Amino acid sequence: MAREKKAERRLGGTNSIDWDHLSQPEFDRRVEALLCRLYSGPDDNVRVYDGRGGDGGRDVVVQQGQRLRIFQLKYFREGFGTERRTQRRQIVNSFREAMAHQPHEWILVIPTNPTPSEERFIHKLGADHLNLKIRILGRAELDNWFARHADLVDYFNRDQLREAAEVFQQEQAILAGGLADLTARTRALTRVADTLDPHWAVRTVVDGDAIVHRIQAKHPHAHVVSPMGLTISDDALGPEHADLRPVLRRVIGFGSAERLILPPEVTRNLTYTGPPWLAAPSGHLEIEAVSAALPTDHEVTARLTAHASDGQPIASFQGTVGRVGRGHLGNSVTLNFENTAILQMFIGSDHQSHMDGSFRFTGAMPATVLQTIALYRSLQDSASIEFEFDGQRLGTFSREAPFAPDDEERRLLRITEMLADDLDVVQRHCRAYFPIPDKISAADRIDLRIARLLIEGHCVVMRTMDSYTTTLNGKVDDTLRRLLNRETSTIRITADVQMEILGIRLDLGTITYFHTQIEIADRLGILAELEAGRGAGKTMKIRPADGEPFRAFMPGQRIGRDDEPLETTGWGFPGLDGPRKRLVQ
Rg (Cα) of the chain, in Å, rounded? Predict the structure, then answer.
């Protein structure tokens, strides 16, 4: 009976180490484990030496960069006062051996709280070592650190718990068999949990102090044969839950795929219906609800057709049905258009049906972005929207302006549309395809527009071409002489051009550059060198006399238009349309 009472006291556990009833090795094990936990940073290197002080006065060494800490462990349960010369001599010997390693700090670890006399004795050891830090790590500080690492206390107190468990025949309760016991108990508990309901499974995960229970259907018809539900009282949601109300309605009412998280102040006002085991435990409880999708046996094609107020179709778009959900108010249907537009229809009674949508353009091909923007605009401009699934007409929605952008959204949409349109034209011409970028520099954006205008047969101002340099081969003819003898001239230069946009080289083809007023730097000197036969390898820099940059066009894109004047086309950016127009005959 006495043995059982003693075991009962120990089975309750303790939150501290029993320093008074340890052997030297047991003391060392506990301190070494604690030090490994305390110094566990990425720059900490902890080494534990065997021999209990027989390895150069070092029991535990912590290396932190160039700094070295040496811990000396002495299990002196009665202390090391002045009357205990043997203990003091051991400390002195260990200290001297440790100093050979030139530590930054030396710490004596003992299972008692040091007396003032003991502290003076230790600090006196370091009197001749001016840069050395020296201190005692005693019982109070050890208990403080272990209190912050309760799992270590539990681990080292397992022997006491084991003795108590044996008395009460609860060896498995403390997992005496280690990982094998843990695996067996977890598997057994999972099997028990699976017997709660033939239609629903409960999966439990421990995350720190939180216990997470996930309720999952064992088969697709679980919600039919064993329905479960939640009822929230009218006063459960206050003004602070304004954002939660529409999510609750979509998930519970229509089976939307959104994550519904009910905070503890709401779950306290819930009423559960369903299997009796579903009643939630009391206390701080958060519920996350995710609606299950209705099963489908194949991919369902969806077609959306936007109609004007007179019933005439504006545009139609094909996508796929991504998900179908069901709630007590009706169904939710998710439509996917090229992964750039996700529309969610909520189909209930006439006054409850509506539609939401989200749009993303980054990472999509320009042609896809243009289609998605056309879908967006059609949803804005239509009076009604008709849906078909696998060729079967589902019904028609009257438009309730679900996508009504503000002025800033309209501006950004227009910028994106212009970028995608330019990219689409240039990519098809150059046969180089890449997604629309998240960001583009101003220089690349202007060059992209210039490339598009050239491809479409326009004459444009070049952004960076304010001079042209060529290398002479040494030969001179009458045309070159006339050019070098005139102060200003008109010039045309034709070359095959590559343009780099977004780090990608694009072959545009043959481009003609021209200017009506150019001058040549040191033209007479260059002419003299050519006439003397010394012109080979000389460079000739051609620059506009009026400061305006070169114009350009692509002859191959203006076939049959040779008689038309080269009227400069502006870049088309509000506030940045290139230099003024110039008419060239």
Answer: 41
Q: List the beta strands (DSSP E) in 504-563.
A: 504-520, 539-544, 551-553
- Separation CA 236–CA 420 (nearest Å): 48
- Residue 7: is it exposed, middle or buried by C-beta count within 10 angstroms (0-12/13-18/19+)? middle
For each of the chain's 585 residues, which pLDDT tens digit applies? 333 333 333 333 456 788 988 888 889 988 988 888 888 777 788 888 865 445 667 888 999 888 999 999 999 999 999 899 999 999 999 999 999 999 999 999 999 999 999 999 999 998 888 889 999 999 999 999 988 888 788 777 766 666 555 555 555 566 777 788 888 888 878 877 777 777 888 888 887 777 888 888 877 667 776 788 777 776 778 888 888 888 888 888 888 888 888 888 887 777 778 887 777 666 677 887 777 777 676 788 999 999 988 889 999 999 999 888 888 888 889 999 999 999 988 888 755 677 888 888 888 999 999 999 999 988 888 888 888 988 888 777 775 555 566 788 888 889 999 999 999 999 999 999 999 988 899 889 999 999 999 999 999 998 877 778 889 999 999 988 988 999 888 888 898 999 888 889 999 999 999 998 889 899 899 999 899 999 999 998 988 888 788 899 999 999 888 888 888 898 888 766 655 443 333
E strands present in 327-422 = 331-337, 341-347, 354-359, 384-389, 392-398
What one-letter code names the amino acid at 338?
A: E
pTM > 0.70: yes or no:
no
Lookup: tokens for 370: 């243009």
Residue 240 DSSP one-character state: G
